[in-house]
Amino acid sequence: MYDYKAAFQTAVEQVKGEGRYRVFADLKRVRGQFPRAVRRREDGSEQDVIVWCSNDYLGMGQHPAVIGAMRAELEAAGAGAGGTRNISGTTRSAVDLEAELAAWHRKEAALLFTSGYVANEATLTTLQRLLPGLIVFSDSLNHASMIAGIRNGGGERHIYAHNDLEHLEALLAAAPADAPKLVAFESVYSMDGDIADLGGTIALARRYDALTYLDEVHAVGLYGETGAGVAERDGVLDGIDIVECTLGKAVGVMGGYIAADAVIVDAVRSWASGFIFTTSLPPALTAGALASVRWLKAHPELRAAHQQRAATLKARFAAAGLPVMPSESHIVPVFVGDPVHTRMISDLLLEEHGVYVQPINYPTVPRGTERLRFTPSPDHDDAMMDDLVAAMDRLWTHCNVARLPAVA
Ligand SMILES: *Cc1c(COP(=O)(O)O)cnc(C)c1O
Fold this sequence. Notes:
Elements: H1 4-17, E1 27-29, E2 36-40, E3 46-51, H2 64-77, H3 85-88, H4 92-104, E4 109-113, H5 116-130, E5 135-139, H6 144-153, E6 157-160, H7 165-174, E7 181-186, H8 198-207, E8 211-215, H9 230-233, E9 242-246, E10 256-260, H10 262-271, H11 273-276, H12 283-298, H13 300-319, E11 332-335, H14 339-353, E12 355-356, E13 359-360, E14 371-374, H15 382-398
Parallel strand pairs: 3-12, 5-6, 5-7, 7-8, 8-9
Antiparallel strand pairs: 1-2, 2-3, 4-10, 9-10, 11-14, 13-14
Helix pairs in contact: 2-12, 4-12, 5-6, 7-8, 14-15
Pyridoxal-5'-phosphate is lined by residues 115-117, 120, 143, 145, 186, 190, 215, 217-218, 246, 248, 256.
């Protein structure tokens, strides 16, 4: 008899043996108190914590405008969408949201998916069906959902070294001139916090007649005058053929989308299995996301406060001799370099200091570059930073972790 149970156990033991077994904190968010939350320990006791690693970057997940819109829509339209859009039609607020998103990115159309992961996976798979012979050029640090879509498409693909435009150009130049091509990359890389050279990548893509596909998941709501992302900040919205974003991070709700020319969106809508055969987002979610996007567009001061908080935390870690990695964005990664210490520091920060920051391990980042990743929001005040820096300083000494900045 095949020992199924043992096979599963071996898989779990392997992860444990490598020190990268993942434990999720049991947290209760309390509306109006973000980034404070209440953690429940395994013995059932409770602890007040400050959340330092949320991707709800601006606290929009608890914003009164968002909650109000969700509550009103829940009362007006009920809980679920009732099926796929093919079967059950489209919720009004989803149509309005798609129009709002398209306008935000200055595209003709947008299409919602149930998550950013699904948007990437479904779209990148489908583009390879729509464009037979498509050659995909993919940045080596692209997100798992992009990799999944590119692989599932089954076509020819080339990985270029992270943000290395010379390498990208060499690969583009080596491909047949008349083959359809797509360059897939991100704007803000969320584990290192670096930002791609959008203008340079677009220029290369144009030179070799390739489409551009940009994941702005960690930038939407956060960069650009109206928050449309780094492409808006850099003045290159028109150079991106297909932009993909999430509604689950800075927008504070859930869902994903692409925005592009109407004909591209129509083709993906008509062919993408991951769009067609799944129940659409509930009305309250699309209404909440719509309220959030409208708020974000009109409130650049939130983005300014966010950047200010991130800059302050980086400076304070550096002043304390902690190896903060050279991030250009709102992400504040601190290098540890092995999974066991990363886990230990994370555990001690939580248990002894009420600081919640998840360890970032392989396969999210390469082995040997394990780190802590802080995402301060406008709601993380100076007193919270005082406590955090003091706790980190003590633990760095206690655990004897290197203080020199390490280059990943
Ligand atoms: C989180 C993430 C996604 C997936 O978005 P979800 O809405 O969470 O599914 C896609 N791309 C990147 C770069 C991400 O970090």
